[in-house]
Specification:
The chain is mostly helical. It has three domains: 40 residues, Homeodomain-like (Arc Repressor Mutant, subunit A, Orthogonal Bundle); 107 residues, Orthogonal Bundle (Tetracycline Repressor, domain 2); 41 residues, no CATH class. Helices cover 68% and strands 0% of the residues. The chain contains ten helices and no strands. The protein starts with 5 loop residues before the first helix and ends with a helix. InterPro entries: Homeodomain-like_sf (IPR009057), HTH-type_TetR-like_transc_reg (IPR050109), HTH_TetR (IPR001647), Repressor_TetR_C (IPR004111), Tet_transcr_reg_TetR (IPR003012), Tet_transcr_reg_TetR-rel_C_sf (IPR036271).
Length: 210
């Protein structure tokens, strides 16, 4: 077994959160994941708050950074798409990414890079702040909505939505039936495609305001 270290402790905490949600992460459950006694964990982290700081930083580390050399719209699109995918892997992080008061180096590097691409594209400081807040609100909100859906992408959408459409028809909700039959139940439907549609609208609006 690898020697216990701060990195191994944080990776273990990430695994616990991924498996059971952030509520399942305790010093005891972490120690069990690592195969050590609970007191051993405290040799590497001061407590749960430091662990939360650390695993949030690990999540930010997974999100692709925009490149200052690329087209700002494409770089922001790439970063937004990457953030969405990372949050699908770590849905517990949705409520934590912007909650930490002692952010780690990956978190700070990430925020600085996003602001840098916006400033480099010609956005004034205030507008860059508006743009960043808008983009993150959209990405985090979409990821939360996506995580809450009763179906998993296109794989089982028909078996979930078809009975709902039949109920809506029986109870007199014609617009819901129309959307289900003319859009959601069509071959190839994927709710994830809505992400690109919304992101395009935001980027178009930011381009005009820039």
């Amino acid at each position: 077994m690898a020697q216990l270290s701060r990195e191994r402790v944080l990776r273990g905490a990430l695994a616990v959160a991924d498996a059971g949600g952030i509520g399942s992460l305790t010093i005891r459950s972490l120690a069990q994941e690592l195969g050590v006694k609970p007191m051993s964990v405290y040799h590497h982290v001061a407590g749960k708050e430091e662990i939360l700081d650390g695993i949030v930083d690990l999540v930010f580390q997974e999100i692709e950074l925009p490149s200052a050399d690329g087209d700002w719209r494409e770089e922001i699109r790439r970063r937004a798409s990457s953030a969405r995918l990372v949050l699908r892997r770590h849905p517990w992080a949705l409520g934590l990414l912007e909650s930490r008061t002692t952010p780690g180096p990956a978190t700070l590097r990430h925020h600085d890079a996003v602001l840098g691409i916006l400033r480099g594209a010609g956005f004034p400081v205030r507008m860059a702040a508006h743009a960043y807040a808008l983009l993150d609100s959209y990405v985090y909100g979409f990821a939360l909505q996506e995580a809450s859906l009763p179906f998993d992408g296109p794989r089982n959408v028909t078996e979930i939505v078809e009975p709902m459409a039949q109920q809506a028809f029986a109870e007199g909700y014609p617009h819901l039936v129309e959307m289900a039959t003319e859009h959601v139940l069509k071959p190839g439907y994927d709710f994830g495609d809505e992400f690109d549609f919304g992101l395009d609208l935001i980027l178009d609006g930011l381009t005009r305001r820039r």
